[in-house]
Amino acid sequence: MSETFTLVITGAPYSSQAPQTALGFAKAAVDAGHQIDRVFLYGDGVHLASALCAPPSDETHWPDEWSRFLTQHKIPGVACIASALRRGLVNETEQKRYELPSANLRAPFEIAGLGEWVEGRIKSTRTLYFHAGD
Amino acid sequence: MTTLIMIDQPPYGAWTGREALDMAFSLAAFDQSASLLFTGPGVNWLRQTQHAGGIEQKSVEKNLTAAPIFGMDAILADRAACIAYGLDEHSLIEGVTLVDADADLLTDYDHTAFAG
Q1: ipTM
Q2: In what order do the strands lie in the sheet with B111-114?
Q3: Residues 49-88 of B with CB under 8 A from A
Q4: Active site (catalytic) residues of A
Q5: Residue A123 forms part of a structural domain
Q6: 3-class DSSP assignment, residue A55
Q7: Domains and their CATH numbers in chain B
Q8: How confident is the model over B79-100, as a mean pLDDT?
């Protein structure tokens, strides 16, 4: 039976395994014919949506990998606005609102409230959490 | 759909507990059934008269005591953890229900989640 998943990532890239474990799961789920309703970044997980990550060239660029996966499969990626603002992740709207020097939200991610998580849980048959594990 | 948000980390040392509260309040705001369960060192969130101002943080005591007003079903605390941390009805904030945080309790909920 086909499932619909909402994935919640709370661990940051390069300080936790959460984003790559979640991506491995997401790819396997799509390959098996399941749907991903949305990916919600919460807490430190919002760092995955930063356009300013620049890992060494011999390391996997996890934000880039996630962006490509979301774009390819037309899956919405949403960073929690409260988590994002606290941690210095902003889109152009929030940059202007708070008069910050730049915006750094990576496409196709968007910034929105916890209501996106609530809606994802309602619409999905399963909601999975990928934590830092510390 | 009933959801239990669990907090097992003590207050102030990390932001995940605070973000777990936001998740629970958000569910309640969208008319979703939500309860909070504090276990292990997490029960210290429920201690009365915390003075978090000394470390430039805000106490969540007012938020938690107002939880029923915001539509939260229940604030639960693991009985054994409360005993271990010297918390009783005199030192806990109002409105806390003591439970045994075991597998039986979790079967009462459709979903369980941690913030991190």
Answers
A1: 0.89
A2: B96-99, B74-78, B33-38, B2-7, B111-114
A3: none
A4: 80
A5: yes
A6: coil
A7: 2-47+58-114 (3.40.1260.10)
A8: 96
Pick among B4, B5, B22 to test the A interface (most A CBs inside 10 A): B22
Q: Is A128 on the interface with B (CB under 8 A)?
A: no
B33 contacts: CB under 8 Å, gap ≥ 6: B1, B2, B3, B27, B73
Residue B15 is predicted with a pLDDT of 87
Q: List chain B residues with CB under 8 Å of A11.
A: 116
pTM: 0.94
Average pLDDT value for chain B: 93
Q: Is A132 on the interface with B (CB under 8 A)?
A: yes
Print the domain residue range for A86: 1-6+54-134
Q: Confirm or reject contact between A15 and chain B (CB < 8 A).
A: no
